[in-house]
Amino acid sequence: MMDPIFIIGIAFLVLGGAFGGYVVFHKVTVMDPLEAEEKAEIEGMSCDEVKIKHELGQYWSFKNWKIANEKVMSCTGATAPTGGH
């Protein structure tokens, strides 16, 4: 007969694996399409539209924020910060 601690440990491993599987499933089925849709929207926006969205800072991914930031910088002619040196 197994000790109860081992049974509890196995239960936690099973629950952790199920939760991890759900996280990956959610990323693939929900987040990836939202990120791709937002990327296409950003690429099709005018400079003013991107500036408004960029001021709100509401992006599905950091990649899309970087794309929007590059577009804002190219529209205004500003340069990216160099780290203060």
Descriptive overview:
The mean pLDDT is 86. This protein is 78% helix and 0% strand. It is rod-shaped and about 70 Å long. With 85 residues, it is mostly helical.
**Count of helix runs:** 3
Q: Helix-strand pattern, N to C?
A: HHH
| Amount of beta strand | under 5%
Report how far apart the termini are: 66 Å
Question: Low-confidence segments, ≥5 residues, pLDDT <50?
Answer: none
Biggest sheet statistics = none
Number of strands: 0
- What is the general shape? rod-shaped
Structural key phrases:
mainly alpha; 85 residues; 78% helix
Sum this structure up briefly.
The chain is mainly α and 85 residues long.
Topology of this protein?
Blueprint: H1 4-44, H2 47-56, H3 62-76
